[in-house]
Design a protein that fits this description.
- By secondary structure, the protein is an all-alpha fold.
- Helices cover 77% and strands 0% of the residues.
- It is built from seven helices and no strands.
- The chain has helices at 9-35, 45-52, 56-62, 65-86, 89-102, 110-130, 134-153.
- The radius of gyration is 16 Å and the shape is globular.
- The N and C termini lie far apart (49 Å).
């Protein structure tokens, strides 16, 4: 069968989890884009300005190498380390996601920080569920690519 031909059902499963993680990230973003303005947070244009001012190489890195490094650090190392130190996977997820979101403070957008924190939590959940960084990396790469695509081609 497929296994004898090198087909890896585990890899396919991780790809499926990556699609689910991307869907969760998109859902979170859409939900927060509706909810945050209701409490007076509507500053996403700052993110668009910052992203669209980046050189093409930086944009390329934003959806290729950067997600790999960020996921290795935030979900691969900090999630586990902070979870171990606090003896709570939830605390590890909250702290690693808060640190991840804080790094986006340079965009000057509270909405971006809220979205990054919430997506960070979702990616922690997928990492814990699958015991792999693959879904988080795939979702992060795809999300960044789609975000850049939409910012660049949809006014």
């Amino acid at each position: 069968g497929w296994a004898g031909e090198g087909f890896n059902i585990f890899a396919l499963s991780l790809f499926g989890w990556g699609i689910a993680a991307l869907a969760a990230s998109v859902f979170v973003t859409m939900a927060l884009s509706i909810l945050l303005p209701l409490i007076g947070i509507s500053d996403t244009e700052l993110v668009a300005e910052k992203v669209l001012s980046l050189p093409p190489l930086a944009l390329l890195l934003a959806f290729t190498l950067a997600p790999i490094g960020e996921e290795a650090l935030f979900r691969g190392y900090l999630l586990r380390k902070l979870g171990d130190v606090s003896r709570s996977p939830l605390a590890g997820a909250l702290f690693s996601s808060a640190i991840f979101a804080a790094l986006l403070f340079s965009y000057g957008s509270l909405a971006e920080i809220a979205v990054a924190f919430t997506i960070g939590l979702a990616l922690c959940a997928f990492t814990e569920k699958t015991r792999s960084l693959v879904p988080a990396v795939l979702a992060h790469m795809s999300f960044n690519f789609l975000s850049i695509l939409f910012l660049a081609w949809l006014p």
